[in-house]
Design goal:
about 375 residues; alpha/beta; 16 helices; globular
Length: about 375
């Protein structure tokens, strides 16, 4: 990619159902900047779905975002996973049998707690293939440099390395001991793998290895956009930053239920890392500003904004729990979701239209509240 041209990147993080929040922020951006363009779009976990959707559509940003909005506003659990009692019971029994089998060869092979065949069907409908077997519109968008590159991140379970799959021309690949990039024609398999919540969703085979949610070991979510040459970045996080008083409030009494533990793991895996990476970027910018350009040795200042929820999306999820299908609600309650006020884990799976619409509304309000900062970043 052209290192001389200023490049604007959109970075979309994970969070399962929380990714509906990103749609609301994008609606606000599209309303204030209807002709906004992103040169680079990166996504991980559920953010990968939104990233590929934006990159594979043509037309004004406002129209594309409204198409994405129409998908999320009616999304339900049944659109993402099979939730009939028979399937859930079969999977739970299979897990239990595997755990007590002692590794016996007769134990059933367990891939995930739920069957995500409905999600694959949804993505195949959203991302139909062209005659060349590629996602229709994606290659065309990249050929128009609208965007110039799109990246989706997964975790290779076989090697333990984070893999960023990149589609675009003239891109210099990068590699570190625990993360690498691969030039690829991004497919539904890449998106499915990136969004495969560990244990809950089955891993997806991409090329020769099985891959899962890209947020699991992604300690630097801004890195793909930086490697692709971004000089301006807008990140949309789904992590609510608690106040000191909120952070001190007990979330459970006695020994923590599994749902409480899973909620903390979800935060550390999918949500907290953006804050840490943003701090590193800010420190780098502050250091580089103290140096004259000739002493920066190729390092660059990157203008950056991170839009985050003004409300706790986990707390919001708890109020919509009764609207989950009965069989699925039985499963989540068995994990102890009613024994803790922490609904962060539950929020990842809260594919309930009313909850998703609420997140979209919160995101749009937050985008409006940060309008001046966003316009300054994207319009320069």
């Amino acid at each position: 990619m052209n290192a001389e041209k200023p490049l604007c990147a959109l970075v979309l993080t994970g969070g399962g159902a929380r990714a509906a929040y990103q749609v609301g922020v994008l609606r606000a951006i599209a309303r204030h900047l209807p002709d906004a363009k992103f040169d680079i779009i990166t996504g991980v976990s559920a953010g990968a779905i939104n990233a590929v959707f934006l990159a594979s559509r043509s037309g004004p940003l406002r129209e594309i975002v409204e198409q994405l909005n129409s998908v999320w506003r009616v999304l339900s659990v049944a659109d993402v996973m099979r939730i009939d009692t028979r399937v859930l019971v079969r999977n739970v029994i299979a897990w239990g049998t595997k755990l007590i089998s002692g590794g016996a060869p007769v134990a059933p092979r367990v891939h995930g707690l739920v069957d995500t065949a409905p999600l694959r069907k949804l993505l195949e409908r959203l991302f139909p293939l062209n005659a060349g077997g590629q996602i229709a519109g994606l290659a065309e968008s990249i050929a128009r440099h609208d965007p110039s590159a799109v990246a989706v991140t997964t975790l290779d379970y076989t090697t333990g390395r984070t893999v960023t799959w990149v589609e675009g021309p003239d891109i210099q690949m990068w590699e570190r001991p625990l993360r690498r990039s691969v030039l690829a024609k991004i497919s539904v398999d890449h998106v499915m793998a990136s969004a495969a919540l560990p244990i809950i969703f089955p891993a997806v085979k991409v090329e020769r290895h099985y891959h899962g949610d890209g947020g699991i070991r992604l300690s630097a979510p801004l890195a793909p956009a930086l490697h692709l040459g971004a000089t301006r970045m807008l990140a949309i996080s789904t992590h609510y930053e608690k106040t000191f008083s909120e952070a001190d409030e007990p979330q459970t009494i006695g020994y923590p239920p599994l749902a409480q533990i899973l909620g903390q793991l979800a935060n550390s895996v999918f949500l907290d890392v953006m804050d840490e990476d943003a701090i590193r970027l800010q420190r780098s910018n502050d250091f580089l500003r103290e140096l004259p350009p000739q002493r920066r040795h190729g390092f660059r200042i990157v203008d950056f904004a991170n839009i985050r929820p003004s409300e706790d999306l986990g707390n919001l999820a708890a109020g919509y729990e009764p609207q989950l299908p009965r069989s699925f609600r039985f499963l989540t309650r068995s994990l102890g979701t009613r024994e803790t006020s922490n609904a962060d884990f539950l929020s990842l799976l809260m594919f309930v239209p009313e909850y998703l619409r609420k997140l979209i509304d919160v995101g749009e309000a937050d985008g409006d509240a940060r309008k001046d900062e966003i316009v300054k970043l994207l319009a320069t």
